[in-house]
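Re: Re: token formats

Sure, here are both.
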Amino acid sequence: MNAHHEYPADLRSRGIEGRVTLKLLISDTGAVETLSVEQSPHHELTKVTQNVANNLVIEPGLCSGAPTEMPINFSLNYFVDRSY
């Protein structure tokens, strides 16, 4: 899964970083049906991650060979490069 996301510039400049973890319910068609926030260091990072998650299409789980809904955890890490 390759999820593109924008790190909000104002949060990056203030050094706000960390991991946002969401719990997603994936439908039998692979779309995100519901999501809930499990962990987040900042509400703006939560919003960015929710937007990414809502645009995902994931291969659904299988039960007896038939597509079925499934819960998954989805995390994005936001880190500030301090090496400059």
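Second one below.
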Amino acid sequence: MLAMMGACATFPAYFVLGHGGRRGQTLGKRIMRVSVRDHEGERIGYSCAFGRVLTMLFVNFVPVLSLFAVFRPLWDKHNRAFHDDIAKTFVYRVRG
């Protein structure tokens, strides 16, 4: 039970700290050379990253939305997922 609670706290914290930080990247995004930014290419901050994670969690826990969310980036103009659209964020390639 305690391990489950720890995992539930660690998952959002990892994404909020990674996406809200200076680079806007988690470890996986660093490896793939992409970064989460706002529409001007600026850092999104921790509050926006928190909203993005809450939206991601909500969409993934509602079965119909989760199925719909898998295919949504295919017809979105900027290939954005629901959590990016709601939080007004974009995933940009990072020059390396």
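The chain has five helices and two strands. The helical segments are 2-20, 27-32, 45-61, 63-75, 82-87.
- S.
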